[in-house]
Design a protein that fits this description.
The complex is a heterodimer of chains A (581) and B (96).
Chain A lengths: L1 H7 L5 E2 L6 H4 L4 E2 L3 E6 L5 H15 L4 E5 L4 H9 L5 H5 L3 E5 L7 E2 L6 H14 L3 E5 L1 H5 L5 H17 L3 E7 L11 H9 L2 E10 L2 E11 L9 E6 L2 E4 L16 E2 L4 H6 L4 E2 L3 E6 L5 H14 L4 E5 L4 H9 L6 H5 L3 E5 L7 H15 L3 E5 L3 H4 L3 H17 L3 E7 L21 E10 L2 E11 L9 E6 L2 E6 L1 E3 L2 E3 L1 H79 L3 H9 L2
Parallel strand pairs in A: 3-8, 3-9, 4-5, 4-7, 7-8, 15-19, 15-20, 16-17, 16-18, 18-19
Antiparallel strand pairs in A: 1-2, 9-10, 10-11, 11-12, 13-14, 20-21, 21-22, 22-23, 24-25
Helix pairs in contact in A: 8-9, 14-16
Chain B lengths: L6 E7 L4 H17 L4 E7 L4 H6 L7 E6 L4 E4 L5 H8 L2 H4 L1
Parallel strand pairs in B: 1-2
Antiparallel strand pairs in B: 1-3, 3-4
The chains are: A alpha/beta (581), B alpha+beta (96).
């Protein structure tokens, strides 16, 4: 929040209020040197708002301020403000002046009066301390003493003119009739609404037994502003208006880094894990191991040494830790070394807005990089749908902006038998990864199935896997699809066994075949060898035969020659005869 | 309450504003009628002495402070409605 504030405070002719969210709505704060009318019912936070405006001015903007208290005494206001951590006594010396202007209870009024005296007194004080900001808290109290509407109006005009004259950035607070009849406020202030440059309405309503505070800027001369009602809270540090998303906001630094989901096979299914800074939604009926899956993520984060915040709306922290230990997720160690912080928010009552602000505050305090909210659907219960919706939107938006990897679970109501897509909070469209857990009742068993409905920017498995919880941890198992049916649990085990047996048989058969073939091969080889030997013998024999034949012929011709010689026959004729067969 | 007590008043006015001028006139009339020769009036102009008004916690003008006799009473306004005013000053009885 700090950087936003400093960037906003640079706007000229606006007086930053230091109220988270409000400066964003008005684009810098209240109109500088002008008057703002702050209206609201009893307990709507007018005093806190205006006091915070003064404190911020005195502390951070070098603009000392004056608080004119018509209703509460300054002592009580200061005591009340102590809880917000504002150092009022310190500021009071130089930069902050409280003027107790409560009409005394035994005040006797006789005739007409005006505020001229007070303004004169204030003027000297303002000059002395160089005040730039002033608050008139509950002006209606003093105006109520004037019976004539015309005279009331005269005092309002006097005050307004005086503020403008002195170029003070002023807030005048006034009670609005009621929360519902905000537009029908007293006539005096009716004219005031037209007179001032900025009008802010605070409302406090109760919907379904849950309180909702809203702030609306009704008018702001010479400046654009967010016209919608913005929810706000009075928290530990004062007034806090829920940030309104502005379209021009800087996109958060997106990372390609993957973080483990804590379940190895789920990481594989997601192509490596969740993206850092992604928002993951885990939906499922009760008992589908949503908590376990989200805790597995928390454990993995702690193992990496990342600071993690685990917010449980369901059960006590110790209970969660004990239950998770039964499935091999041991968080107690990380709780002890401070890496993990668990908050049981079951006891926090309030609107979704309250939850968001608390979660944000805790996350900031813990400097969490990973955040688990289990389940986020609780917000749906405590307030109207619209608020919860916008809160969930803002939760994701905020987590993204801060680069926090967010895992939130959402309970689906089994009884209502909604379609799978009917996540009660429609944050599924905003979440980056949506994992759906379901039950599959089959053959007298109830088994958990996990499927990835979507995962932006990652290739992911389309398969339904079986989620198995054992005392050694969480694993996923392939499911079997047989005849269009997904098999899980015992059926899957049976199928697996049958396949195993079949595989063994096939293996044995193959072995046998191989042996037979080996034998045949050996036999053939032997035969081949003997044939080769035989062949060699035959070849030898043939050679011998050829040679002996040739010798025989040579003998014969030699013998003939010798005979011829012995006979003395004509050699040439004999030769000729020989050549011509 | 002794009849001889001298009343001490302090009247805070805002310059010559109409209200203040009326208050001053009305107080004068009242004193002449009910407290002849036993009253003291101190007039403080908050425009001239703003710090005094601040110190005395006077924010609405005109304002009349009855210092003596006790109890101290503060009356705001033009001092025009005589009856409640007299009651506040403890002067109601003689008027009836």
């Amino acid at each position: 929040m700090k950087p936003i504030q400093s960037s906003v405070s640079a706007v000229p002719n606006k007086a930053p209020t230091g109220i988270t969210g409000f400066d964003e709505i008005t684009g810098g704060g209240l109109p500088h040197g002008r008057t703002t009318l702050l209206m609201g019912g009893a307990g709507s936070g007018k005093t806190v708002f205006s006091l915070q405006f003064l404190v911020h001015g005195a502390q951070d903007c070098k603009e000392p301020g004056v608080f004119v208290a018509f209703e509460e005494t300054s002592k009580r206001i200061m005591a009340n403000a102590e809880s917000f951590g504002w150092k009022l006594p310190e500021l009071q010396r130089k930069k902050l002046y409280f003027l107790d202007a409560q009409p005394l209870p035994d005040l006797i009024q006789s005739g007409d009066f005006d505020l001229g005296g007070m303004l004169a007194a204030l003027e000297s004080r303002i000059k002395e301390m160089g005040a730039r900001r002033i608050v008139f808290d509950a002006l209606d109290i003093v105006l109520a003493l004037l019976t004539d509407p015309a005279k009331k109006r005269r005092e309002v005009y006097r005050l307004h003119a005086w503020l403008l004259d002195h170029e003070l950035t002023g807030i005048i607070t006034a009670k609005a009739g009621g929360d519902e009849t905000i537009s029908v406020i007293q006539q005096t202030f009716g004219c005031m609404q037209f007179m001032v440059d900025c009008a802010v309405i605070l409302s406090h309503s109760v919907a379904l037994g849950v309180s909702h505070r809203n702030l609306r800027v009704q008018k702001y001369r010479g400046s654009s502003f967010d016209e919608n009602e913005a929810p706000f809270l009075i928290g530990a540090k004062g007034f806090e208006v829920a940030d309104v998303r502005t379209p021009g906001r800087l996109n958060a630094q997106m990372s390609n880094e993957r973080v483990s989901s804590g379940v190895e096979r789920l990481d594989t299914m997601l192509g490596g894990g969740y993206y850092r800074g992604a928002s993951v939604l885990i939906t499922g009926y009760s008992g589908t191991a949503k908590t376990t899956l989200s805790a597995a993520f928390a454990e993995a984060a702690c193992r990496r040494g990342e600071r993690t915040l685990f917010v449980s709306f369901d059960s006590d922290c110790s209970e969660v830790v004990r239950n998770l230990a039964s499935v091999g997720i041991r968080l107690d160690h990380y709780l002890k070394n401070g890496c993990l912080r668990m908050i049981s928010a079951r006891s926090i009552a309030g609107s979704a807005e309250t939850y968001l602000v608390r979660v944000k505050a805790f996350a900031r305090e813990h400097e969490a990089r990973c955040l688990v909210i289990d389940p986020v659907s609780t917000w749906y219960k405590s307030g109207n749908d619209l608020t919860a919706q916008s809160v969930a939107d803002r939760l994701i938006d905020w987590a993204k902006g801060d680069g926090i990897t967010l895992v939130c679970t959402s309970l689906l109501d089994e009884m209502s038998n909604r379609a799978q897509s009917g996540s009660s909070l429609q944050i599924s469209s905003l979440a980056d990864t949506w994992i759906h857990l379901s039950y599959l009742v089959q053959a007298g068993e109830r088994n958990r199935g996990l499927s990835i409905v979507k995962s932006r920017g990652t290739a992911h498995s389309n398969q339904v896997r079986e989620l198995i919880l054992s005392d050694s941890g969480v694993t996923l198992a392939d499911t079997y699809t047989a005849g269009g049916e997904v098999l899980m649990g015992t059926l899957r085990w049976e199928k697996e066994r049958a396949e195993r047996v079949a595989a063994e048989a096939a293996e044995a058969e193959a072995k046998l075949k191989r042996v037979t073939l080996d034998a045949e091969e050996a036999e053939l080889e032997v035969r081949l060898k003997s044939l080769k030997t035989l062949l060699a013998a035959k070849q030898l024999e043939k050679e011998l035969l050829v040679r002996s034949t040739r010798n025989h012929e040579g003998e014969r011709s030699r013998g003939r020659t010798q005979i011829n010689e012995l006979r003395g026959a004509d050699a040439a004729i004999a030769g000729e005869k020989e050549g011509r067969p | 309450m002794s009849r001889r007590v001298i009343y001490k008043f302090r009247l805070y006015v805002a310059g010559d504003a109409l209200n203040s001028a009326q208050a001053l006139a009305n107080l004068g009339l009242l004193c002449r009628e009910y407290l002849p020769d036993r009253h003291e009036i101190e007039v403080i102009d908050v425009f001239k002495e703003p710090k005094r008004a601040l110190a005395d916690a006077i924010f609405m003008t005109p304002a009349l402070v009855k210092l003596v006799p006790s109890p101290v009473r503060i009356i705001v306004g033009t001092l025009s409605q005589t009856q409640p005013l007299l009651q506040a000053l403890g002067l109601a009885a003689p008027s009836s």
